[in-house]
Sequence to fold (316 residues):
Amino acid sequence: MKRPVIFIPEPFPAGALDAVPSRFEVVQGDAARACSEDELIEALKGVSALAVTSREQVTARVIDRAPDLRVIGKSGARPANVDMDAARRRGIEVVWSPTANVQSVAEMTLALILQLVRRLPELTGLLRAGGWRNYDMLGRELSGMTVGLVGLGNVGLAVARLLGATGARVIGFDPHVSAGEAARRGVEHCGLGQVFARSDLISLHCELNGGTRGIVGPEAFTAMKPGVYLVNTARGPLVDTGALLDALASGKVAAAALDVFPEEPVPPGHPLATHPRIVATPHMAAFTGEAIHRETREVLEDIVNVLSGRLPRHMG
Fold:
């Protein structure tokens, strides 16, 4: 009898594959490039399960052209790259590993915040150019700064916990979190407009959907303090690219740190990747050895659960 096939377009670490019993066949794709829509459709012929990262786009057309598909797994947070409505119409389970990379993303966020406020990229450039310390290159302490978090889910609250050790005042907006719950985590809950207006530094931790796409756009930048810092380790399209570049040019934004972009991989020479006051990293916040092992293994375990007739731990 033919073994059910699990297709993984962007290869998972070898250790994660230990979660798949031998009664299943695992087929992995090309690590160097994403599958196009047509290539994904072709690859899913006769495939029972699809396990993706954030790289491949699992569109309604892909889902509708995969008659044998029973489950889609997304390693990491809730899948923004999977058409959930199309999957539900087909009765396909969607599973993910929502907490596996929380610590890694939170630590990366704090690292980027510290790079911005202490001006580490500029100081490195100064030293490499033969310069030395001077009063024109002073950074800031987080203690006494107001840090605004847009999104108080798993990652946002983990960032708030890390910031608590710095003495920063943490405020945040999330329509799904009560003021009491936020206060218990050391966060002053307030409206989105207040987060934009009061914060010295703003960090994004919300999901990408119709209501949040472009949430940091021209009006948001107008409301912000002059010289604000912006960090985005969530999703690239949360930020209006043109508005951010205008805000950097005007000085409204002192500097930004971006781990995510509207188009990924980022095209060569893109202004978000080359701007002198943007710290840019290639969507690596969740990519530590520990997090990748946890999230890929957990999603494969839940795929096996579904294919074996058991309930997954996390599903949409």
